[in-house]
Amino acid sequence: MKLSYENINKIKSSLIYPSHLFIDGKYQKSINEKSFDNISPIDGKIINKIYFAQQEDIDITVSKARKAFNNGYWSNLPPGERKKILLKFATLLERDRLELSLLDTIDMGKTINDTYNADLPTSIDNVEWYAEIIDKIFDDISPSSKQYMGLITKEPIGVVAAIVPWNYPLWMAIWKIAPALITGNSVILKPAEQSPMSAIKIGALLSEAGLPDGVFSVLPGDGPITGKSLCLHNDIDCVAFTGSGEVGKLVLEYSGQSNMKRVQLECGGKSPNIIFSDCHDLDAAAEASAYAIFGNQGEVCSAGSRLIVQKEIENEFINKVAKLSKNMQPDDPFNPKSFAGAIVNTEQLDKINKYVNIGKEEGANVEVGGNITMKETGGCYFEPTIFKNVKNNMKIAQEEIFGPVLTTLTFSNFEEAISIANDTEYGLAAGVWTKDINKAIRASREIRAGTVYINNYEEGVDSTIPLGGYKQSGIGRDNGYQALENYLQVKSTWIKIT
Hints:
Layout: H1 5-13, E1 21-23, E2 26-28, E3 35-39, E4 46-51, H2 55-71, H3 79-95, H4 97-108, H5 112-133, E5 140-142, E6 148-156, E7 159-163, H6 169-182, E8 186-190, H7 197-209, E9 216-218, H8 223-232, E10 238-242, H9 245-257, E11 262-266, E12 272-275, H10 282-294, E13 306-310, H11 314-325, H12 346-362, E14 365-368, E15 372-373, E16 381-382, E17 385-388, H13 395-398, E18 405-411, H14 414-422, E19 429-433, H15 437-446, E20 451-454, E21 474-475, E22 488-496
Parallel strand pairs: 7-8, 7-10, 8-9, 10-11, 12-13, 12-19, 13-18, 17-18, 19-20
Antiparallel strand pairs: 1-2, 3-4, 5-6, 6-22, 11-21, 14-17, 15-16
Helix pairs in contact: 3-5, 3-7, 4-5, 5-6, 10-11
């Protein structure tokens, strides 16, 4: 379906806003019927009230998930049968693609162009890829004498709690759900309280696809109550989390305070994007650099938020990026032609504005933007912003802002570029632009980041490539067959042959 205002408004007019918990194959209210206001950042209006999962709801859900796992209806199902159900789920995501896209746009403020043309297709691809790979992974037999046989097998870990962020509501959920489900686990999804609706919606889709009751649940709520309770629960075997480093550290603590459950973390970054003077196409590099920080309103863990430019081309290159930013202003998120939409909520908008003011106080110069905009809408919007004359010890160069704010630094030689790139507590992603293949490979080896893009930035990201970080950017990986390891136990069976 081609996006148009007509199609968008037709679906919007009949859209049902999901609000319930999804437990044991059905929607229900929280036990005490506690709820919270779900507010759209597009116009500041209340969308609906979302039921808020409390400890009693969590205990019931975990019990149902454990029962479903133990009865083996899903965990013991042959991989080929699990595959069929996940592929059916993918077809249902495609069927309801515009509805799910609208729910994410309304909840989070991102453009319908992004949700419909990027988030949903990549989510569907991810489900299909994991469905297709599961019956092509083999166990092992160790080399040994004829007297023994060593079997190395993989088993589902059990009950998985997936705690996901608001910046890509459905996509980030699928990154956890698809590999965790296809390996035979029960999954409890806690969406971010800022963007819960698409997560709630897919509960019914998975049931329609044939997933047994209890295998998948959705518990909307906040971090301090719902998220913490899941992390501390002694009958959950694994927590897969994407979010801030501050909360990621709490997840690790909760694991230690409870049953030493496995923890997989993706905790953001402050990613460098290095432009060498021998870059073969400065226009292409400038366009990619602008997209890397202004796309999705800059609310991207791996955003190229630190632009590190060789001094010889500093002014020329920054001017190119600044010129491009003029066409990347926020606008109506329901307009299929809008590049950027709203910031997720007033709290995040204030945080971005605070960092811009800090940058000015630290002595950096605002070259472009720097202001809250579109105030008349009642929503949350911020201009693409570029800082110049930034030093790498400034807060705006070291701390994750999570907004459309680009800090630019300069370097003289290769060694200085790598030193600046690595001088951060994060290590999620990096970009390198040069026509010298030796320099590119050397930079990739020396930059301490989970993903290094050479002569591109986040182009062609797909399900086959593992994503995750070094240092305080996380533990474990999403995507690729490596993500399956998060949700599997390895068992060794040593057999004596007589």
